[in-house]
Amino acid sequence: MGRLKARMREAYESNQKNEHRSICLHSFSDLSHVSAATFMYLLKDCYFYGTHKATAKFRILQQQVKRALNNDPQPGPFTYIVQCMYIIPLLGQSHAEGFSHMLISSLRHLKSVESVQKDFIDAKCLAARLVLDILASVVPHEERILVKLLETFDIELKDMAHAFCGSELGDEDLAAAREHLKQHVQYFMKSESYVTAVALMTRFSIQCCDESFLIKLIGSKQYKAAEEWAAFMGKEMIILIIQKYLDVKMLKSANELVKQYDLAEEFPDVNYLYKESSLKKLAEKGCWDVAEVRAKKDTKLMEYLVYLAMEAGYMEKVDELCERYSLEGYVKSLVPEEVMCQSDYLELKKLILEEIVWVDEINGLLSATSYIEACKIIGVDCEWKPNYEKGSRPNKVAIIQIASDKKAFIFDLIKLYEDDPKALDCCFRRIMCSSNILKLGYNLQCDLHQLSQSYGELLCFQSYEMLLDIQKLFKETTGGLSGLSKKILGAGLNKTRRNSDWEQRPLSQNQKEYAALDAAVLVHIFHHVRGQPQFGVNEGRQVEWKSHIVSRVNRARSPLRF
């Protein structure tokens, strides 16, 4: 009996929903006799009956509203939406901004429709009245909605004056409206609502600030508002904001303004400084090939790229660029001791690593596996050749590095997989699935995903036990593994070779040392902090590292056959 009642209740609720849906569809198909209040009530119910997530529901409803606005709302779509904006706060504040944004955005496609232009002009006065009501807190709407109304209805000072004075307009009415709006601008400035203040000032030509306001905007990181206000104030203020950008090394923004307002004569060096800055960022990420393409047509920039490579201690890249672009003379002009700063980075010899072993044949694989199985703690990392083609799949993982505190192994996955995939799978399953070995990584889940994508036929990268991602213990640390190394060991990692060609054979000695260091440093970081009471701090709370060890056992697939 209980089940029967439950089914009857479900059927009743389903019928109610279907009936409600039919009412909504009928109403939206013809708005000629549907008031704004009824429309908003139905719209709100549609939202709450929806089963999708909030963003998806709003997106679907917006499409429905767009279609509905073509179905004869009275007296017209623009006036109708303004009327709806008065209704929205009465429905509750929980989703008021979302509904407001959705309705105003739905008008965009109608602004160019000839048949509704009269309604658009008529609605401007009503929209201006709504803006005044929002400013006076009579109708509660968010400031972002206020700004959106001004933009969508293209409200001018005369519209505000007409709504404010309600009579034939004279010069004194425009002045009174501007003064009234100026008071609101000053209020927004005091409350640090700078974006709204700038929107009112630039739209209604209100001048009530000096350069100190620009400094406040930049200080609060309201850069778009700062640029809009500077453009409104004129060339002198644009020059000032460019200078302020240069002072805080915002070279990209400064360069864009210089180009936009044709100020190269006033700032002749900005474009080159920006290009230098871009090359440096690419070099720091190890994207040397991209940096080279960016610098190719400019000898001075190419010399700077060589300088960056020398500064990073990436001498094989220095030699490569010098040979390709005949820059040997430039290198000779530099004083190596003044350029190179390798001492700023952690060097492999400081970790007292006894040996780096290159493994590219089966006997070496078996020997390395036996050694690793006897270790209690290992660091794991992998590398693959970068792919700069947009939208293309990443290249296969080329090497995987596994290090103890004394020895590092670099496995040539490409060759080992080609020679004997079954042996490779068996050996790495012994390592990855061992409950006796703590495997340390930094964002190792990403590496494991890449490994499983590269070698999907192997089971060894589908399952693991005793995995500890060091990154999760130091969420507040910036700069990746290099930043963590600097924090814990006092020196960062030189990442300039990160995006080198890991498929070339043989790898250079520098590449091997880079790869070994990335795995070995994980073990040393762990040893350095394991005994400390505050190992890993997350949001002010001590974190017990053992609770972050994870395992994943995939038993769904049968053993690999070749």
TrEMBL record:
Q: Which GO terms describe its biological process?
A: nucleobase-containing compound metabolic process
Cross-referenced Pfam families, in alphabetical order? DNA_pol_A_exo1
Q: Which organism is it from?
A: Triticum urartu
**Do you know which InterPro entries this protein is assigned to?**
3'-5'_exonuclease_dom, Exonuclease_MUT-7-like, RNaseH-like_sf, RNaseH_sf
What residue ranges carry the coiled-coil annotation? none
* Molecular function terms from GO: 3'-5' exonuclease activity; nucleic acid binding
Question: The organism sits in which domain of life?
Answer: Eukaryota
Q: What Gene3D superfamilies does the database record attribute to this sequence?
A: Ribonuclease H-like superfamily/Ribonuclease H (3.30.420.10)
Q: Gene name on record?
A: LOC125514237
Designated name of the protein: 3'-5' exonuclease domain-containing protein
Q: Where is the 3'-5' exonuclease domain?
A: 356-534
